[in-house]
Design goal:
The chain is mainly beta. It has 2 helices and 15 strands. The longest helix is centred in the N-terminal third of the chain and has 16 residues.
Length: 276
Amino acid sequence: MGKRLPAVLCFVFLVTLCLCLPVQADGGDDLRSKAQNPVSSMYSLPLKFTADFNAPNGSAFIMNVNPVIPVTVGDWNFISRALIPLVVSVDGYIEGTPEIPSGSPSNDRNTGIGDINYSLYISPAKPAKMIWGLGPSITMPTASNDSLGSGKWSAGGAGVVLFQPKWGTYGGLVRQLWDFAGDSDRGGVNQTLIEPFINYNLKDGWYLISDSIITANWYADSSNRWTVPLGGGAGKLFTIGKQVINSRLEAYYNVVQPDGAPEWSTTFTFQFLFPK
């Protein structure tokens, strides 16, 4: 615990800072809706820290940088979303996480960059009540250590559907990846990701959220195939000077999990928003 104390203190400081900062006043509800929409036409840079605990081999810490770059062409938005595990630290072997569908066994803690995923969503620039996006997705074997990634090139598709009534946002995202190249000595990738989400908006920029990331490894036997977390948390929209920030804190417990997966996880997201 002593080695983790500085990181825990930094985490507590950031959360406390977010709770004390003033909320964005002008256009706050509109910004909150755009921040809760994965295929909105707003530039953003989320920094996401996830801590996974109680896996058989220990814990995993993942710092994701997820730039979102939308481009509007005529009646369509083309939204580029990159999932960059900039820092991944894993005790030995871990599985059942979106970032590491099939890691390689190790007896030591390894730290480095993970596999980078890129998705391109095509979405109507002026959607109706149902907002949707659809496009290709590819994962590159950029991990600096075998235990931090799959060692495979994999590709497939991703899609999202959501609705935004006055009280918040609800919907779901699905992604499917299959390996097509890479290290022949590593196991294959056939991973489904299902992400149902719901946001309930409160006063002063606050909102409640549940954003479970369910994964299935179709190469595993039936008893080790699914990872299903349940939980939720809270978020808040605020400003630092003129910079708009969306921040949220969540905790999830894996009610279904493979043998090598963590039992529970906490996630803290610090998202920079750049309204047009």
